[in-house]
Specification:
A hairpin with a 5-residue loop joins strand 1 and strand 2. The chain is globular, with a radius of gyration of 14 Å. Helix 1 packs across helix 2 and helix 2 packs across helix 4. The protein has one domain. The protein has about 100 residues and is an alpha+beta fold. About 35% of the residues lie in helices and about 35% in strands. The protein starts with a strand and ends in a 5-residue tail after the last helix. A six-stranded antiparallel β-sheet has the order 1-2-3-4-6-5.
Length: about 100
C-alpha cells in the first residue's frame, strides 16, 4: 500500500494492491475511513458497475445504512480531462457491498 498526503493534510491518496497483485485501487483516505466510487468498488470486487449500484441502492432502501452518513461528493477529473462531481462511499458501504457480492476481496 502506498500513501500520499495532500499539502493541507486533509486527506491522503492510498493505492491498495490486492494480495494476488492483479488489482490496484487508488482510494482517498480522509479522516478515519476510506472512500471508493461505484467504479472503484466494481474493480475491487470484480463485478459489473450495475451490480454494485444495485447493491448500494438496496443498502439504503433497506435502511441498513443512512445515505447522508456514508456518502461524500468529491470533484474527480475523468480521462477526458473534465472535472465531475462523483459520489464516494465510505468503508461501511464498501464492507456491506463486499458481503452482498460474496467477494473474497
Amino acid at each position: 500500500m502506498e500513501r500520499w498526503e495532500n499539502e493541507q493534510n486533509i486527506s491522503e491518496m492510498v493505492i491498495y494492491t490486492t494480495e494476488d497483485g492483479l488489482t490496484k485501487i487508488e482510494t482517498t483516505f480522509d479522516g478515519d475511513t476510506v472512500w471508493l466510487s461505484i467504479d472503484q468498488m466494481a474493480e475491487l470486487f470484480q463485478r459489473d458497475k450495475s451490480t454494485i449500484s444495485r447493491h448500494v441502492k438496496n443498502i439504503f432502501a433497506e435502511g441498513e445504512l443512512k445515505r447522508e452518513a456514508v456518502v461524500a461528493n468529491f470533484a474527480t477529473t475523468a480521462a477526458d480531462g473534465k472535472t465531475y462531481q462523483v459520489d464516494y462511499y465510505n468503508l461501511d458501504v464498501i464492507i456491506s457491498v463486499g458481503y452482498r457480492v460474496k467477494s473474497q476481496r
